[in-house]
Structures are given as structure tokens and as C-alpha cells.
Amino acid sequence: MITDFSATAYQQQLADKKTRLNQLLAPFTPLQPQVFESPAQHFRLRAEFRVWHQGEESFYAMFNPQDKRTPILLEQLPIASELINQLMPRLKAAWQASKELSHRLFQVEFLTTLSGEALVTLCYHRPLGEAWQQEAEKLAKELGIGLIGRSRGQRLVIGHDHVNEQLSVAGRSFSYRQPEGAFTQPNGVVNQQMLNWAYQALGERDDDLLELYCGNGNFTLPLSRRVRKVLATEISKTSVNAAIANLTANDIDNIELVRLSAEELTQALQGVRPFRRLANVDLSSYEFGTVFVDPPRAGMDVDTCELVRRFPRILYISCNPDTLAANIAQLADTHRITQCALFDQFPWTEHIEAGVLLEKF
Questions:
Q1: Which of 211, 319, 340, 350 is flagged as catalytic?
Q2: 319 part of the active site
Q3: Contact at 8 Å (CB) between 202 and 356?
Q4: What is the set of domains in the chain, with CATH numbers?
């Protein structure tokens, strides 16, 4: 458990991460990764707390992974965004003063943006009725936030169920809808660095881009400015709907979005089986020069690795350097690393986010 949060400790931890990534990539490249630092505090745009009740009072609580029974009671969370820290005492004071808001409240979730928007979700072990909604509406207005109440079988939305983020890539601002419950990058500053690195690594192309695991279009939007057109896939309905809204909000018309898993797309491109969701997509019209992947921690499965092998360039963002190295090993007989980077998405943890550009030789 980390107890030293000094600038020196942060730099040492970052150096250790670079060493580890170097060791994993050394069998494939002599290149040193470009390192992108994070702010040491107030970098996390999402936070989730249990609510711990003691007598008449209740507290924000978190737990040590090694001890799930002893709560760590909090008033502030220095790694969370400044907006989360501003909202924490005001929200707590509101539920402490309202039996309707506090009764059987067990969890609070915050979602904020670099652009200053906030969404709070309150989770309950009881049904929520009109009295709760009236109290929640007053609270949302007072705090200037969107507010959601959740209980079993219920989801009550006060105001809006998403936040809107603004991120700058190569001097252009992109707008992103980020819904409650959908995946978003937790470290906004480093996310913006990742987007700019991927934009630079892709370069100006005169062919097309295939993107797997596109989420809400986080990378899709800026990368679409570098190619003729994009075919992007995502399996989550929530993320697909957010991505569609983001295409419209940014006036981007060269992206075709399809709700397919990476495995299903592999089957479609290999002619194994047809998919109705591809009925209006002319796959033969694409001239793919690059495939972009940002897979889950498990990395790409064997079949997806074989699919991406056919592309001249593979732009790969990874949240797990071990599975990244395993995937590179599978591709090493056809592709070599020409660029690599370390993104410190998760300061004060051992987690490493990495990026590599692999090009066919």
C-alpha cells in the first residue's frame, strides 16, 4: 500500500513502470517508449463510494482490497477531480439533512468532465417514490448537476443521464457524450494525451481505418480526420448509442458504426457467416490500411490477432501490458513496432496503459 505521495515518489513509480514496459517490449523492439505523465492529484474524473452509516451520521467509505470489512471513512479524495471534491461535502450535507435522501442509501457514484459537468448516481436498498424525486430535484438544481436514483428495478433520472466532455486533439475540439454506466477513460488529462499520440502515430492517410472496440467513439472521432472513412465496431448498446450521438454532435459523416463484437467482425470479414447488422454496409468499398484496437484487459483473442495481421498498420492501445506483449508475440513474424508510448492513466497503482504502432515488414 502506497503511503508516500510526494513528487519524488511519483517519479520513481513512473520510472518503475517504464522499466517494466521496456522489459516486456524488449524482445520486439529497441525503441524506448515515449512517457506521458499524469497530474499527481485530481486526475480521476470518476469515483465510487460506499455509504457507511454510524448512528445518525453517514460517511463516504472505501475499502482496502485486502480488507473488505473495515471501511476507510473519507471527507475528500485527493486523486478525484476538483469538482468531485467540491461536491462531496455539499452532497453529504444534503442527504444528512434529508431522511428521504439518506434512508437506505448505500452507494454514491460521481462522473465528471474536464469541461466542468457532473452527474451523480445515488443507489438505494429500497423503492424510490415521488417524495424522493421532489427532494432529488431540489438537490440537483442546488448543486447544478444531473442526478440519478437507482434501486432494484428502478432508474429515476433528474435532469440528464450523461455528461458532455470537450477534448482537444491537434488543435480541434471534440464533444463527447458520456452516459452513466458506460465506460469512459477515467483520467481526462492522460486520455487527451493518448488521443493526440494516436492521431500523430496514424498520420495523414489516403486509405480507410477499421476500429474494433470503439466504445463511445473516444478515438474514432479524431482518427476519422486522418483517413478517407472509418468502419467502427462496438458490442455495447449504451456505447453505440453514445457514439452515434457523438458523430452527430461533431458533424462527422465518414464513420460507419456497426454493433458487432470483434469476434463477429472477424467471421464477417472472413466470410464465415453473414450478419444482418452488416446488410447495408458494403465491405468491399473499404481499402483498409490501418486497424485500431483498444481491447479489454484480456487483449485480443487468437482469431482477432489473425484478423489484424492482414493490415499494413496496427495501432494498439492497451490497458494490460502483459496481454499486449502476448499479442505482439503472435504478430511478430509479420509486424514490427515503429512507435511506442506509456500513458500513466492510473498514478499510485501498478497499472500501465501503453500504445504501440505495428507496421508490416
A1: 319
A2: yes
A3: no
A4: 7-40+187-360 (3.40.50.150), 46-163 (2.40.50.1070)
